[in-house]
Design brief:
The protein has 183 residues and is mainly α. The chain is 78% helix and 2% strand.
């Protein structure tokens, strides 16, 4: 439980800094996802475990991407972009097909708890993280959908601290969408 509380604290800091477009969101994210790799493996949420391995790599990639443009007072000034219809189509198709493949594999070949909801949130998160590293506004929409499902999944798995974290994430994601849409 202590590791979960530390991961929650890092998660709150990570999303807050991301909303503010502060490049320190990325190293804080490294700590958070490293802890969650262990936590989710222990909870038999294998898709989430793999997702956090992916997030670990993406923390370094995101940090690199956000520092390629102008940075002032730790704030990335790279332009916020908007996803076109074609991007939405690929995103929806990728999440749908990926959920089917990963969910089926986890159901058939592991003792995963909640393989399809876990796969769905994992695929949403992969696409959202990629869009975030490229500073697409719509990353927040995917995070909002994922957070709603995550809250239910973590409540079912008795990960109440993490469930609470995702309630706060949901609120911060709505705030992130609002702030980035002005930017």
């Amino acid at each position: 439980m202590t590791l979960e509380i530390i991961a929650v604290a890092c998660g709150l800091a990570n999303v807050y800094l991301t909303v503010r477009q502060n490049i320190w969101c990325w190293p804080v994210g490294v700590v958070m996802v490293s802890l969650y790799i262990y936590i989710f493996f222990e909870a038999k949420l294998y898709s989430d475990t793999l997702l956090n391995v992916f997030f670990l790599v993406m923390q370094f990639y995101g940090w690199y991407q956000w520092t390629r443009g102008p940075v002032e007072h730790s704030r990335s000034l790279s332009a916020i972009r908007r996803l076109a219809t074609r991007g939405w189509t690929w995103t929806i198709l990728g999440v749908s097909v990926g959920t089917t493949i990963v969910g089926t594999a986890m159901h058939r070949y592991t003792d995963a708890a909640l393989p399809y909801p876990d796969a769905f949130t994992t695929l949403l998160s992969v696409f959202a993280q990629f869009l975030m590293t490229k500073k697409f506004l719509q990353n927040w929409v995917l995070w909002i959908i994922a957070d709603v499902v995550y809250i239910g999944v973590y409540a079912i798995k008795d990960l109440y601290w993490t469930c609470g974290l995702y309630v706060v994430f949901l609120i911060l994601c709505v705030q992130g969408y609002r702030e980035w849409s002005r930017g």
